[in-house]
Here is the input.
Amino acid sequence: MITDALLADGRCVDITVQDGRIADITPHAGRLGETHLAGALLLPGLVEGHVHLDKTLMGLPWRPNAPAPSVRGRIEYERTHRGSLGPVQPRARALMDRMIAAGTVAVRTHTDIDDAYGLANFHAVLEVVQEYRAKLPIQIVAFPQSGITSRPGVADLLDAALSEGADLVGGLDPVTIDGDQKGHLDIVFRLAAKHGKGIDIHLHDRDPGGNAQLRDIAARSLAAGMQGHVTVSHAFSLGTDDADDFAATADALAKGGVAILTSAPGPVTMPPVKPLRARGVTIYGGNDNIRDLWSPYGNGDMLERAWMIAQKQGFRSDEDLALAYEVCSTEGARMLGLPTHGIAVGAPASFVALPAESIAEAIAERPRARTVWLAGIKQ
Amino acid sequence: MITDALLADGRCVDITVQDGRIADITPHAGRLGETHLAGALLLPGLVEGHVHLDKTLMGLPWRPNAPAPSVRGRIEYERTHRGSLGPVQPRARALMDRMIAAGTVAVRTHTDIDDAYGLANFHAVLEVVQEYRAKLPIQIVAFPQSGITSRPGVADLLDAALSEGADLVGGLDPVTIDGDQKGHLDIVFRLAAKHGKGIDIHLHDRDPGGNAQLRDIAARSLAAGMQGHVTVSHAFSLGTDDADDFAATADALAKGGVAILTSAPGPVTMPPVKPLRARGVTIYGGNDNIRDLWSPYGNGDMLERAWMIAQKQGFRSDEDLALAYEVCSTEGARMLGLPTHGIAVGAPASFVALPAESIAEAIAERPRARTVWLAGIKQ
Here is the structure.
């Protein structure tokens, strides 16, 4: 039993956990449970909607970032240098441990699959994921980081990864990387249909080209009956100033049941949270690159990511800050197929306690002292 | 003596402190000093270039933010509600203590002066500043938060504050708030000349109107021989896409010796750091609003602000991240008239130690466990 927990709605409660789930929530009656929270805020666990476990340098000494000016340049730099990083497993474990300590209770990771390394990263990540799956749900996206149609053999490698346990098929900038929107998306949707699995496509292109691709993806999702199982990550082009283009694209995404994943990157436009939700589009959050060959930033903390999303969106009210938290918890959980996420009877006892009076204060302060439970087990 | 300190340039040193200053820096020779840092990174103290000590709610229970859509709306909201906040002093002290704990060693604070509250906030902040000046340098800007020419009596109140110890005269959106660019700036520059003090003007206007005002301020600074003593805070308009307008404005600022202060706010454009420096314009950092009636965000940590500036500027290399740190330390110190800032013999022994291998890692991680010295005294 967890006692004297402050919930986001202001209630002060005791929580009974049984078989990894919340069995009962009762008003706090002065009892002392196994864990007495003394009024700390108890929040639904954070959900990491987009991370690259195989890329991270976590646990290694600091390595200066060698920034390339374009996505293509970063891909090439990584292809050249990732061999020098040592095995994936210890780095992936170091990051998983930090993510869990920060309150993350479910994860979707992409893992590079390409013509140079084949399934090596996928196999390494799968090994780590299988270790951690006893603690928390993790999904793996088979991610063609170097392209599909422009890289011989990658389509077959993706096919193999899906057979071997990848949970979703990925894609990447069909126009900018492969120069073949139709060919790229044909393969992604074909593999998803063949294996009965979801889709999560990286799309970095800016408007208006990016939004045209989003509408194509949305139409394909609708045609394939894949509503609710397709995500486009990043989708910077939705940050367009063109209101008509935005509305048409958002409506297409809503109709096609395509969700948007954002990391609210610093220097570029991001998909606008409230306008997308107003048109029926799901948007959820992820950290993306965490201290790797792409970026020196990141620490695996999805509460910090909620703060970045909130800041960039100009959120100030408690209600808006709570929405930023939802984007980084409940909304991600729903997209990861975990519908009972939250502090409610019957939901998994996977949550995080921290010193704050409200979700808004939690985001503003991001206290690093956190107590985390995964399926009822205190970490 | 402080032993086994890692400096940003990679040297591992012992530091001798005498009379509040750095008396000697020698290669670490295995000694154990009064404080043994065990290889922790020792960095020049952070400098808070723009804060509002009188506005903060720090130390009070969480208060939801009631966001208004415009600067004018926020001014009105604050005028209506600040009476309910209780005395300034305990809130200002709570924030000062947090800023120092985060490694800040010098501060410029604005303090509201207007027709509704007169010099009340100024007097309260002056009291707190006088308490803390034994520890660290603090400057007060007499800040006309509600305008000058549109608010009878405010010019005289600013005059009085400058006589009573304000270090700089402030200004605020001459066009948007007072509707009188000439009248507003005439008074600001007249008061600065009368008292022989510097200027720090808030300017929120976007381009192109903002840049026209910047050029006017730069021309006035040049004419008055005030180069190096004038700052424009925020200056969002410098984030313009118009390269010619940017170049003309930056060149005028350089010629007029006008520095730019930025807090890298989330949802709007910011002055570009490297392009401004390339044209000879000083840019330094500040937190601005910290948990007050304007914003729910902020915790007084200038290392976090350096990270926000770096993220928004797309900085990735170690060199660029070190520049972001400089913007939030050395550059601010220079503008605050503290030229010997840094880890060097003769400089004040005001610095911060934290667990990191490099400035880049310090910014990426922002470790919260910090050891801070102010003029040789460990805090």
The mean pLDDT of chain B is 96.
